[in-house]
């Protein structure tokens, strides 16, 4: 969703637009994914290896 704010819009109208937008955001519980990946290598070494693939 995009909220367009034009120059000269009052502070009250901006706050109302932000509140309306905030109410439509769906929250998700990401804690259920914590610890779901088992890695055999060190994550930092994996990241370095993946970054070096571009060269």
Outline the structure in words:
By secondary structure, the protein is mainly α. The protein has two helices and no strands. The chain has helices spanning 11-22, 43-52. The longest helix is centred in the N-terminal third of the chain and has 12 residues, at 11-22. The protein is elongated and about 55 Å long. The two termini are 37 Å apart.
Topology (elements, then pairings):
Layout: H1 11-22, H2 43-52
Can you give keywords for this protein?
mainly alpha; elongated; 55 residues; 0% strand; 2 helices; single chain
C-alpha geometry? elongated
Instruction: Measure the end-to-end span.
Output: 37 Å
What is the mean predicted local confidence, pLDDT?
84
Strand content: under 5%
Percentage of helical residues? 40-55%
Tell me the number of strands.
0
The helix/strand series, from N terminus to C terminus, equals HH
Derived structural class = mainly alpha
Question: What is the makeup of the main sheet?
Answer: none
Based on CA atoms alone, the radius of gyration comes out at: 21 Å
Q: Which residues sit in consecutive blocks of at least 5 with pLDDT less than 50?
A: none
Quickly describe the structure.
Helix content is 40%, strand content 0%. The chain has 55 residues and is an all-alpha fold. The model has no long low-confidence stretch (mean pLDDT 84).
């Amino acid at each position: 969703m995009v909220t367009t704010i034009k120059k000269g819009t009052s502070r009250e109208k901006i706050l109302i637009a932000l509140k309306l937008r905030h109410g439509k955001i769906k929250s998700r519980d990401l804690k259920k994914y914590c610890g779901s990946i088992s890695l055999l290598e060190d994550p930092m070494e994996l990241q370095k290896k993946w970054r070096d693939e571009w060269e």
